[in-house]
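User: Um, any thoughts?
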Amino acid sequence: MAVRLFVGNLSYTTTEVDLRTYFGAIAPPSQVVLPVDRETGRPRGFAFVEYLDRANAEKAIQQFNGQVFNGRPLAVSEARAREDRGPGGPPSGPRPGGFGPRPPSSFGGPPRAFDPNAPAPPRSRNFGPDAKPQRGGSAKAKKKESDRPRGPIPLKNTGRSFTLDDADTTADEAEPIDDDFATSKPKEETEEEK
């Protein structure tokens, strides 16, 4: 029965003829497949070499695995069928359009049935340090209340706004403010300012 070898870490300049002559040092391979990229036509960096005799295939693995070929160390092993490939390979089984059932996940252990009556597992608290305890909360509440305004700010007849502390003064005590620049008389310049 024929044995197929996977040859990885190939240089992109490697051709099928190069592989046939290199692996032909053990025995002539029955088949050499060098996959190429569909879009660029460039080799993909791996190949499959097939021997009719298992002894020749095992000898090729021992002799060529780790050996430098075209400037790169080769990774030679027995090729596995598509279904046997583990994580990292393409998904196995038909899933046309992605609507088929998903294969069971190996992440986090075996899948378990959902039981709505079962207690929830304890949550781990590895998301940061505990918060500092709150002390003296009543003093903070009093301080915040004293900083709050006590109501609307009253307006006096002058049109100016005053604070609550100024509320007990009368309008007669307030000085008139001349802030109408359009009607105010310009100040005459003195000789010292010139």
